Amino acid sequence: MEIEVQLTTEPIEPPPMGAVLRGGSCGAWAEFTGVVRGEEDGRPIAALEYEAYEPMALRVMRDILARLGERHPCHAVRVIHRVGIIPVGEAAIWIGVAAGHRQEAFAMLSEFMDELKKDVPIWKRRALGPEEMPLRQSAGA
Amino acid sequence: MMRILFFAQLKDVTGRAELEWPEAAAMSPAQLWDRLEQLWPAISVHRPATRLARNGEYVGGDTLLEPGDEVALIPPVSGG
């Protein structure tokens, strides 16, 4: 199974899966996108800041995917997790799975997200209120 | 030398992301925690829920931490 994992501070742009799908053995292509909600602990927010222990996070994600691939054989899995400040409505994580059939693809998506939330060293560091965003944006400009 | 990494709320407690320790001998995770609590007593509330990683691998309480290791304190994760 082809595995690609990536951490980025930039907005996530899902890569095309063309080559994998054109191989002719894939009957399913499933995607999941996790998006930052506009509320955290009951209060409105403008963004979440994520932090990662990057080398370990990448390795643990690869290990989880390889392990899940033994139970749910897929052709390819790609994961992109964004870190840093992520505005509400933007993707924190994107996963794409190519598989022979939908059952393996759905199982891979669902079980990977469960495992990610238990073992991958990535944290929601803090929520930023609406008042904090203009300052941050101008400071970074 | 042992390198200790702090993440998330542990970074707030210690006020730093990492610590270089001129450690000459191996120590157990319990010994590491005891020393960290001497430096930052407030870190103790995080001890029960925090896992240790040695050179990028989660370790149990019976693993010895050696000079030259990178030891990360991993509080409960919340990715995705």
Describe the structure in brief.
The complex is a heterodimer of chains A (141) and B (80). By secondary structure, chain A is α+β, with helices and mostly antiparallel strands. Helices cover 35% and strands 37% of the residues of chain A.
Describe the structure.
The complex is a heterodimer of chains A (141) and B (80). Chain A has helices spanning 18-22, 54-71, 102-119, 133-140; strands at 2-8, 28-35, 39-40, 43-44, 47-52, 76-82, 84-87, 91-99, 122-128. Chain A is α+β, with helices and mostly antiparallel strands. Chain A has one domain: Molybdopterin biosynthesis MoaE subunit (Aldehyde Oxidoreductase, domain 3, Alpha-Beta Complex). The radius of gyration of chain A is 16 Å and the shape is elongated. The model of chain A has no long low-confidence stretch (mean pLDDT 92). Chain B has 80 residues and is of the alpha+beta class. Chain B has one domain (2-74): Beta-grasp domain (Ubiquitin-like (UB roll), Roll). Chain B is built from 2 helices and 5 strands. Chain B has helices spanning 9-14, 29-39; strands spanning 2-6, 18-21, 51-54, 57-59, 70-74. In chain B, strands 2-1-5-3-4 form a 5-stranded mixed sheet. In chain B, strand 3 and strand 4 form a beta hairpin. The longest helix of chain B is centred in the middle third of the chain and has 11 residues, at 29-39. The mean pLDDT of chain B is 96. The chains are: A alpha+beta (141), B alpha+beta (80). Chains A and B meet through strand 5, helix 2, helix 3 and strand 9 of A and loops of B.
